[in-house]
Design goal:
77% helix; mainly alpha; globular
Length: 412
């Protein structure tokens, strides 16, 4: 295992050009940063009202940040969809690798997810023990002023039965783990059903789930969209190349603008139609917009250069850790500064710094342990082969395909 995130980034950047998956790591990093900004801005009662309700005075800056595509700068809910599509894509790609082994996949995957979660719960508990006066009018902060009782800790450690909401981003890990366990079903469906049919069906199911407020139906099919994109990857690449030859940069400018409009569709509609109607109408466009963004991250040259720029790529390397530890830091700094602008200016850099430390002491050891278990499980599953060669080859292939866990974001 590499000794720091930046060295891992160099490994990813050295992948064959055909994969270009390092841009997806950068996309994770940007999205994780958006989540931090999301929670920092929720310290403002005016902006928190967009999610929690309440009477507020509309100002030009609030209208722009809430009801236009600028909302994507702090769009936690939209980042969830992007991350779920990314996760489905990356896991489906791993399944197609020649070295993939189901016997080793399950224990290694669970370790890579659960060990950092345990660290995040412990970190959240420690931070929430610090004195805080709770002197705020933000409904988001008021909703997080109840402490961290033992039964909530147990719930957050297990995840599958739901989460407490105290460390709110953990709710997405529940669906990540469930999909990871259901990956054989998704892989079989991808073989049985044409990928484009699978994608359309998953978009429709997610829209139905959102309209009926059925969380499993809303979120799990989003992973399936990522699986479908991977299944059509060669065809998508051919179409993109033809479009680029004909339209060049104008094509990508239009596609990125379309992705932004689709991803922010809920906020463009909510002021006109209300929350319920906006949720029903916007879910399918949001998922489509996330899919376009994932495709653009790999195929749009300009965007790919931005996402593989070393600082962004480094951010992608620690994005899972940043996702896990940022919220308690935002809450702490909100109580210290007692003002949203100062919370934003202090919590964001502090969260990035703490994420790097968390990567060193929690996430990296989890990766190391997961690889050892995976190598051992692969050897046990193939006792007739050379254990050194099996373990070494399996490890290197998975590092290229699925080196980093996807970060997740939440709107809660």
């Amino acid at each position: 295992m590499s000794r720091n995130p930046s060295s891992r980034v160099r490994n990813v950047e050295g992948m064959p050009v055909a994969n270009r998956l390092s841009a997806l790591d950068g996309l994770r990093g940007i999205a994780a940063l958006v989540v931090v900004v999301h929670h920092a801005l929720l310290v403002s009662p005016s902006l928190a009202a967009a999610y929690f309700g309440g009477d507020v005075q509309e100002t030009p800056w609030r209208i722009a940040l809430v009801y236009t595509p600028l909302h994507l700068v702090w769009g936690g809910a939209e980042a969830v969809v992007v991350f779920f599509v990314l996760s489905g894509f990356v896991l489906a790609r791993a399944v197609r690798s020649r070295s993939f082994d189901w016997f080793s996949y399950f224990p290694s995957r669970i370790l890579r997810l659960y060990v950092p979660v345990l660290g995040a719960v412990a970190f959240g508990f420690a931070v929430l023990l610090l004195p805080h006066d709770g002197a705020t009018t933000s409904p988001w902060l008021l909703d997080r002023d109840a402490g961290y009782p033992f039964h909530d800790i147990v719930q957050d450690i297990t995840l599958l039965g739901g989460t407490s909401g105290v460390v709110s981003p953990l709710w997405t890990l529940r669906w990540e783990i469930i999909f990871s366990l259901l990956l054989p079903v998704a892989a079989y469906a991808a073989r049985l059903i044409p990928a484009w049919v699978l994608g359309v069906a998953c978009i429709a199911l997610s829209a139905v789930g959102a309209s009926q407020d059925v969380a499993a139906l809303q979120y799990l099919p989003v992973f399936g969209v990522g699986v479908a994109i991977e299944g059509e990857w060669d065809r998508i690449g051919a179409v993109v190349r033809r479009m680029t030859r004909r339209g060049g940069a104008f094509v990508w400018a239009g596609m990125l603008l379309l992705a932004a409009v689709l991803l922010s569709m809920h906020w463009e509609l909510v002021g006109l139609l209300g929350h319920a109607a906006a949720v029903t109408i916007a879910q399918a466009p949001i998922v489509i917009g996330a899919g376009i963004l994932v495709i653009a991250a790999v195929h749009c040259t300009t965007l790919r250069r931005v996402l593989t720029w070393r600082p962004v790529a480094w951010l992608g390397a620690v994005s899972f850790s940043l996702y896990l530890v940022h919220e308690p830091i935002v809450i702490l700094m909100a109580n210290v500064t007692d003002a949203m602008p100062w919370t934003l200016l202090t919590a964001v850099p502090l969260a990035v710094a703490v994420a790097w430390v968390f990567w060193l002491i929690a996430e990296r050891p989890a990766h190391t342990l997961a690889r050892r278990v995976r190598a051992r499980a692969t050897w046990v599953a193939q006792p007739g082969g050379d254990p050194v060669q099996n373990a070494h080859g399996e490890q290197r292939e998975h590092e290229r395909i699925d080196e980093r866990e996807p970060a997740h974001a939440g709107m809660r």
